[in-house]
Write a structure and sequence with these properties.
Elements (H helix, E strand, L loop, with lengths): L17 E3 L3 E3 L5 H7 L9 E3 L5 H4 L2 H12 L8 E3 L4 H12 L5 H5 L2 E3 L3 E3 L5 E6 L9 E5 L7 E3 L7 H7 L5 E4 L14 H10 L5 E4 L25 E3 L5 E4 L4 E4 L1
Parallel strand pairs: 2-3, 3-4, 4-5, 9-10, 10-11, 11-12
Antiparallel strand pairs: 1-2, 6-7, 7-8, 8-9, 13-14
Length: 258
């Protein structure tokens, strides 16, 4: 978990950002480079970016990611990069790069391999299934089911409020990374709130759920919270992640390395 915060960057958290097996990431938020630097992870190690949707807190780090690879960690363009995303995302990211650094990223952008199919497999064997979720329709919101049908399968919800498409996938997996972007009092169904998490956790009591994209600060004394630093009382199968949390599969179950 390279970052676990929502768009408003609660204290102690970078934007929500997940790395898989040290070489694949989900989205590329504005704090992506800071997350990589903190983790001492060379950007040239990243082989794949899975895009859930094109809100700024999920993709506005992309021009900086390409800029760093082009001029620092992969100057000779020896490390191929694949982007898995829905149709239309390529054009929007190209516009973003042109706005951020006109002309400077054209060459590196042209070498990206794009995978737009809803289901697929990478050369390393990681498979995915992309599914529509409930969020702002203008940004084409999706979640991902990684390694569906396998023992070590897991879900990344992207940004999503409660919806059957997400919960149907969660019922078929062994772990879920689930966003909880809003406090209870906000009137919106485009993100999960604590009561939504509690409800689905009780419906799927054997499924480990890792909360990310949170509005809650990491607690610290003598600091006025952004919104709050008080965690809700989650069911026992729910774990509220912090930045740099690690998860591992031991052949039987997922383990949290806190």
């Amino acid at each position: 978990m390279l970052g676990t915060g929502n768009a408003f960057l609660p204290y102690g958290r970078y934007h929500s950002f997940v790395m898989i097996d040290g070489k694949h990431v989900v989205d590329c938020p504005p704090t992506a480079l800071a997350s990589f630097r903190r983790a001492q992870k060379p950007l040239s190690d990243i082989e794949t970016i899975f895009i859930t949707h094109v809100h700024g807190d999920h993709v506005f780090g992309f021009p900086f990611f390409l800029l760093e690879r082009r001029y620092i960690s992969d100057r000779d363009s020896n490390r191929p990069l694949t982007i898995v995303a829905a149709p239309g995302v390529k054009q929007r990211l190209e516009q973003l790069c042109a706005l951020a650094y006109p002309g400077s990223l054209d060459e590196v952008f042209s070498k990206i391999k794009w995978r737009e199919e809803p289901e697929g497999e990478l050369e390393c064997g990681l498979t995915w299934r992309r599914f529509r979720v409930h969020h702002d329709e203008s940004v084409d919101p999706y979640g991902y089911h990684f390694n569906p049908g396998k023992e070590a399968s897991f879900i990344h919800s992207g940004d999503s409020g409660p919806c059957d498409s997400l919960y149907d996938e969660m019922a078929q997996t062994s772990m879920a990374i689930l966003e909880m972007g809003l406090p209870q009092w906000v009137e919106s169904d485009h993100h999960h709130k604590p009561s939504d998490v509690e409800k689905i956790a009780k419906q799927l009591p054997e499924l480990p759920m890792i909360i990310t994209h949170t509005y809650i600060d990491e607690p610290q004394e003598n600091r006025t919270p952004t919104v709050t630093d008080a965690f809700p009382h989650h069911p026992s199968n729910v774990f509220h992640a912090r930045d740099e949390l690690r998860l591992s599969w031991d052949g039987l179950k997922w383990n949290i390395i806190d």
